[in-house]
Amino acid sequence: ACIEYADVVAPLFARRCTYCHGDMEPRRMLDLSTLPGIMTGSMAGAVVRACQPDTSFLIEKISSDIPSRGVRMPHDGPPYLRATEIEAIRRWIAEGARATCADPNPC
Question: Which letter, b or e, does each residue of 10-35 get, where b requires 16 or more Cβ atoms within 10 Å of its Cβ?
Fold first, then answer.
């Protein structure tokens, strides 16, 4: 089953990420409160590479104890995201980081 942004990813980010990376004054200029904000990325560049979860910086930041830049997210962890939550985000990216499963798959 395809991972729907609105059903899975958006609520997860709203619960664990947007208090820092929200739409008003997002830290590091990374707005995780909207799909366009996620796909635009941060002041350091793209954080999601559609179809490429293993090279998406977002996956590194939420799953690595020692990311290549900065610290593991969410910043207030532990607890960090659960393995099932990380896997859902990974699958969403692998499936093209689409708004809906009905959108064309760019992969």
Answer: bebbeebbbebbbeeebeeebbbbeb
d(CA 67, CA 77): 14
Q: pTM of the entire structure?
A: 0.93
Q: If you ran DSSP here, which 8-state letter would residue 69 be given?
A: S
CA-CA distances (angstroms) from residue 72 to 2, 59, 75, 77? Answer: 27, 10, 6, 8
- Contact assessment for residue 61 and residue 70, using Cβ atoms and an 8 Å cutoff: yes
CA distance 102 to 24: 30
CA–CA separation, 101 and 99 (whole Å): 7
pLDDT profile of the chain (107 residues), mean per 10: 95 96 88 94 90 96 91 92 97 97 96
